[in-house]
Specification:
60s Ribosomal Protein L30, Chain: A, alpha+beta, 6 strands, homotrimer, 116 residues, 6-stranded mixed β-sheet
């Protein structure tokens, strides 16, 4: 079964992999915006573009993992997330944990979504 | 292919998503029990209920991710985990890492399991 | 649908689970090598052996998660990763975050790969 890669900005990894009805995609904010809200908005816009390119959408996400540099910013991230993800029929299983992140990243998001 | 959501207790995310023969589910302890052992027991009971509801079971887990607030409590979590997961034919691939967690959570567990 | 387990070195979890065209596998360095580069090389060799055993390979990875004890060692890990993963057509979706790890582990890697 074919694996399709959507290229990203960094060596050694892709923006997304598509295989057997699922797309696996990850985002960080390339502009290192100064707030968690701004980084989350940028990441979700980029992830939505990748989902669309893969033939999926934000109503087809099955699993989300949100890594936050500072868990004190969770409410700020959640407000942007909830606004983006929309109605309950779109809500994926999601984990959100605090972790150290690369460079000036305040949030990093991984999505697994259905493409069929 | 249909995605089924099992509702959870928080806005923007579900207890579980079911799609194409897999269920993705996450648990934290809503009662913020005072020990890692108690939180792990509660979470695994809730996850087992979600697996059963999805048509899966603890003998059908393919991937587990355990996030611990304090890695010094890993042995305490492992004792509860090993008791719960049972025989080697049930043992999934599992990662366990230390991460900051929301509120009074000492442990958060994500499972991916087969429903077919 | 059958789940196949590849046994590992620890109770309660397997080196890998295989189900419905995917293998889920995890590695840490059992020898606790003193550098991130050495641990990463050992882990990727072990993961490659598990992928081969499962009928997959490093050109079939769809998702990777890299946990680092110290994000200051990311460049050191990345050099080994990029050398191992090879050409862009092999590049999976990958997240890399800082997390506390068990014992003397400096890096822990989870791969999901296609076996069909």
């Amino acid at each position: 079964m074919t694996i399709t890669r959507i290229p990203g900005d960094y060596p050694g990894r892709s923006r997304a992999s598509i295989h057997n009805g699922l797309v696996y995609t990850v985002g960080t904010d390339p502009d290192s915006s100064p707030t968690v809200a701004a980084q989350t908005r940028r990441i979700l816009a980029d992830l939505e573009a990748a989902l669309t390119k893969a033939g999926s959408g934000k109503d087809r996400v099955v699993q989300a993992t949100v890594y936050l540099r500072d868990m004190a910013t969770k409410a700020e991230m959640d407000a942007v997330w909830c606004d983006w993800i929309g109605e309950p029929e779109n809500w994926p299983q999601r984990a959100c944990v605090g972790a150290d992140l690369a460079e000036d990243d305040r949030v990093e998001i991984v999505l697994v979504a259905a493409v069929d």
